[in-house]
Write a structure and sequence with these properties.
By secondary structure, this protein is α+β, with helices and mostly antiparallel strands. The protein is 20% helix and 41% strand. It starts with a strand and ends in a 6-residue tail after the last strand. It is found in: Membrane.
Length: 290
């Protein structure tokens, strides 16, 4: 049975669901707030179990164990007395579970994380969830949390703590116990965040390229604004393009009016030496006596 509490002012919903059945588990309890499960109840230990560690403090503050066991007894009595009256008259509902696996936090190799196996379209909530790593069973898996949804079906969560590596292959195996249906969902690392070392290397390379670009830009700006002049002031030279012998290169030369001087040349030339082609950058600046 399900109790819904509605706060019209804050527009929040708290859902308390007690269910019992002939399968495993025989009885269960889930408490959901705004669609997110907060607690389940361990009837063998008589304690409330938080779905996430953040809810642990709240779990110990609620003292309603007598009311929970009253609801448990009432649910079992309804199954035993009312169930036979409708047997064969009401069609049996079945939902084939659908499994999906994802990480709780963004994936980073070498850093602890948690795999989440989310099971939807579950009815009745009789299931077993196991984990495998490279087809080998994984031990030490925590409890499976089952909660009701608004469409009167159920969903389940199973969690596995692990430290991811690039070669990981995990699988979540969901077995629907009443009909033996098995759903399997696989997980392999994808779209991992770069490691700290790679981030530092990329930042260093980007910084170095940025500084080099600034220096080259400043040099080009300075020489593009500088007039072509020699020992005599007021004489501007003429920039001209010349090609190297054999058409293997090109250059810019600056000559001073009618006064023959050694040209200031900035250019490049290519040498061909099989089996490689070599590209040389040539910069020559004439020496002007003081």
């Amino acid at each position: 049975m399900t109790h819904l509490y509605w706060d019209e002012l804050q527009n929040h919903t708290f859902q308390y669901t007690m269910y019992c059945q002939d399968g495993n588990p025989e009885v269960g309890l889930s408490e959901v707030y705004d669609g997110d499960q907060l607690f389940s109840f361990n009837f063998s230990q008589n304690i409330r179990v938080p779905r996430l560690p953040e809810f642990a403090d709240w779990a110990h503050q609620i003292e309603d164990t007598p009311a929970i066991f009253f609801d448990k007894g009432f649910c079992r009595e309804m199954i035993e007395k009312v169930g036979p009256l409708f047997e064969g008259k009401i069609p049996v509902s079945r939902g084939l579970p659908i499994a999906e696996v994802f990480t709780l936090k963004p994936l980073e190799f070498g850093k602890p994380n948690t795999l989440v196996c989310f099971v939807s379209n579950l009815f009745p909530p009789a299931l077993t969830v196991t984990w495998e790593h490279h087809s080998a069973p994984v031990e030490g898996v925590g409890p499976t949390f089952v909660s009701a949804t608004d469409d009167l079906s159920f969903q389940a969560f199973s969690y596995l703590n692990f430290t991811p590596t690039p070669s990981d292959l995990f699988s979540c195996v969901v077995t629907h116990e009443l009909d033996g249906y098995v759903a399997i969902s696989y997980w392999v690392p994808q779209n991992a965040l770069p490691s700290d070392l790679l981030e530092n290397v990329l930042c260093g390379v980007a910084f170095g390229l940025g500084v080099l670009g600034i220096i080259v830009g400043l040099v080009l700006i300075i020489y593009s604004r500088k007039p072509c002049s020699g020992g005599t002031s007021g004489h501007l030279g003429v920039w001209r393009q010349r090609r190297m012998r054999g058409g293997r290169g090109a250059g810019l030369s600056c000559n001073m009016g009618s006064t023959p001087t050694e040209p200031w040349t900035l250019g490049w030339r290519g040498l061909s030496r099989a089996p490689w082609d070599i590209l040389l950058v040539e910069v020559s600046v004439p020496h002007t006596p003081l």
